[in-house]
What we know:
Elements: E1 2-6, E2 12-17, H1 20-23, H2 30-44, H3 103-119, E3 123-126, H4 136-145, E4 151-155, H5 161-167, E5 173-177, H6 183-188, E6 191-195, H7 196-206
Parallel strand pairs: 1-3, 3-6, 4-5, 4-6
Antiparallel strand pairs: 1-2
Helix pairs in contact: 2-3, 4-5
Amino acid sequence: MKIQVVSLEGKKVGDADLNDDIFGRQEIRADLLDRAVQWQLAKRRAGTHAAKTISGVSGTTKKPYAQKGTGNARQGSLRSPQFRGGGVIFGPVVRSHAYDLPKKVRQLALKNALSAKVKEGKLIVLDVAKSDSHKTKDMASKLKKLGLSSALIIDGANLDLNFCRAVANIPMIDVLPEQGANVYDILRRDTLVLTKNAVEQLEARLK
């Protein structure tokens, strides 16, 4: 599959060949995309939620009143869950929400995400993602010419520092190295922008 390559100024500078198995899949598997997104969101959860059980609540261990003769129900501790300020039964505990997803499923989901952007006509291939200046105003005008208001820009393994600084304060524009390419970030932005270097590295990674 051929796609045109453009510069940051919006000028066509050539063509690139895209691997059909990675960028040209006809059937987009929404179930795989959903599995990948749920896996990523579960993995990033902090899991620091916690509630105190009866042993963790501060308070006396003294029996509140006599077992018999008061007319009240028998009680052994004011830290019991039926009292205000008492412990919580089966409350949340600190834990990891992460779970395993097979590598082949993750790779297939990424291929589907890339193909979905191509099918929607929302993939742009850049010649290079480099800038001589770190000024946000200059970069914002260039991205506006390309029609980018919500985009994920993926470059090769080594990102250009000036480019990253120029884009950092522009809302809805994200920059990632190729090794950080993932389904969630691709789907959450409207347009996917790949450099020629990123295309080569992604194809080598997913073949």
